[in-house]
Amino acid sequence: MISEFDIIDRFFQKPTYNGIVGIGDDAAIIPASQNTEFAISTDTLVSGKHFFPDADPYKLGYKSLAVNLSDMAAMGAKPRWVLLALTLPKHLVTHDNAWLSEFSRGFFDLANTYQVELIGGDTTAGPLNINVQIIGEIIRGKAIRRNNAQVGDDIWVSGQLGSASLALKHELQQITLTPEELSQCLPALLMPSARITLGQRLVNLAHSAIDISDGLVADLGHVLKNSIVAARINLHDIPCLPIIKSNLAQPLFRECLLSGGDDYELCFTASEKNRNAIESLGKELNLPLTRIGKILVGHQLVIKDHQEKLISPDIKGYDHFI
Ligand code: ADP
Ligand code: MG
Predict the structure, then answer these.
(1) 153: Cβ below 6 Å to ligand 1?
(2) Exposure b/e, 121-154, CB count within 10 A at least 16 = b
């Protein structure tokens, strides 16, 4: 079977004209006014694939918007408007409308936080499927792209990685976490934080950015491919929960950290001269920003542990088809 990205490349990737940024970044960028551009993106959550069919509807409403906000964050855009296309099984449309009122409450709680307006959508009956389209605004030419990482850049990540994947492995009964460990990682899976403020503040500090939806290796890989550069990252520098850090010798925990999806943290690259400014920004936003490696000449991603041992490069990110 061909991969998700082969499908896009072979059947849908087309050249764009008139300075538009099309397929291949976290959002498309099109002109809006003389000084501004629109950033536009869409993401779908499928029952049984992206969430359990009995998922808490409040958290699901929240997450449906969060994953879309995250693509705006990755571009440095200010999210403004959304459209919501809902396909609902009839059993969720009950007499008391409990599912719908909780889902919409979760959705609007997050929308109101960022003053994002719901301006349209579609409602159909069928297997539960949630699609959101989002439109943001950004000053012309300021979007942070995946294709501008520069040799010598530091590679940074926000927050902690691997938490959502660890929680999912517990939910799938592949590991057993203590209630305390679970309470530390479950929020990342169920109600991820989109790093909207960080993204906008990185506009004049970062050369490139992506949000980590499919895992660090896969998503940083997109930045390297689009920027035609290589990178080295240090496994033990990647910020994560203590339970992951202390078990990095085990493939399962390493996999959470390197290829676990759904964290929606930002991975960005920036010139060394911006180190102090980025560190101050992290303090100001009360959000850990951690340097995990460097951009190099070439095209490969090299991952080394604290003893300089090469970590197997066969780790892949999440792909819907392989
Ligand atoms: P993200 O993880 O940031 O949401 P994806 O990995 O889903 O982005 O998609 C990668 C790129 O391919 C994006 O620019 C997206 O808009 C584009 N893309 C995905 N699926 C299609 C499709 N069926 N047709 C056109 N473009 C697509
Ligand atoms: Mg993205």
Answers:
(1) no
(2) eeeeeeebbbbbbbbbbbeeeebbbbbbbeeebb
